């Protein structure tokens, strides 16, 4: 059967499926690639290899996983890209899988197959590289060939059915903290937390119940605590039976935050409760005396239009606006609320980063892509005005200063990552790296920016190009 994607004028150019794998050696360069970059930059993205089975699916969240590797050495960069050969990917010769995380909407031929697309993130620990999505176990990827090696259960010691897309590794002990929510399966309120040593061995498991079945996409760790949070994305059996995508936004559901001592058990979990908020990713956290302080991009409402409101109300872009805020939890307080402070109100964005050598510690710098509406827009990107991330920001939490890299009037930036210049260097000294979609040239560009002086490199720093053809 011929593959035909539906004609949809809302998904032109870079938002259309790419459907290719490639090896490109000695990519083209504008500027200079820093000579001290030596290693591989991996990224996971979603890409529909076959069209969605149903028109009401959750956008790219349900698309197939694709891993890119950019290999830096001696001022040169090679590229390799491969789809993740999940059970789902291998079963398809047409789309068999239905709505996001809802097996009841699948073609009968998909019955009993693992539905994960492994499309959310890439993580390395204990000598293994994983492609991750929070609805299944990690998928092992060969770090050189990008060959898919199958799922990983930590020698049978990881018993949750799900694994987060965002584990955290303590920069001093090398211990990785990971977890699964809906750990006992669909519509489960169970959260299983795992402590994994630097060699990849599970050393401890903690199980607790969540007060609501909600997306728990990310965590933050401190030297003493782990922070989990829910948001307005909820589900129930009635929703699944009705054939809807897994999540709907319920503005009446409080935000819950759990704080678990790293040496504690389920009985030691402290739950806090606050107003409607969307905190999908957490930047970092630190324990200071009896307080746990969390920095994160937070919205007042539903941040993603693909997950609709349960009451049928239209998506509100104003409530979706997400900016960095600070939450302070007093562990000695009998109040179950917390204090909230807005830190950088003029930089809306969802995907924050820090120098990961400072996970769990007090940090000075943070990095994030954001949309700056005052910047010029090329005619090729005009239809995307106001919808694309066109800048990377470096935030100084000590001074309140923000410095920005502007990618150019035709470019939309993807998630930013920080790479230290050297392992023992000062915090924040290094590079910002990420992929830009160049609408005018119809190509992807790997952007490398000086993290301390991003504004000095706007449109002039070293880039590697990968032509989409």
Which helices and strands appear, and what pairs or packs with what?
Blueprint: E1 22-24, E2 29-30, E3 39-47, E4 64-73, E5 76-83, H1 87-91, E6 121-125, E7 128-132, E8 139-141, E9 148-151, E10 168-169, E11 176-181, E12 190-196, E13 202-209, E14 219-221, E15 225-229, E16 233-234, H2 237-241, E17 248-249, E18 255-261, E19 270-274, E20 284-288, E21 291-298, H3 317-320, E22 323-330, E23 339-344, E24 352-353, E25 365-370, E26 391-396, E27 402-406, E28 411-413, E29 417-420, E30 430-438, E31 443-450, E32 463-467
Antiparallel strand pairs: 1-5, 2-32, 3-4, 4-5, 6-7, 7-8, 8-9, 10-11, 11-12, 12-13, 14-15, 15-18, 16-17, 18-19, 20-21, 21-22, 22-23, 24-25, 25-26, 26-27, 28-30, 29-30, 30-31, 31-32
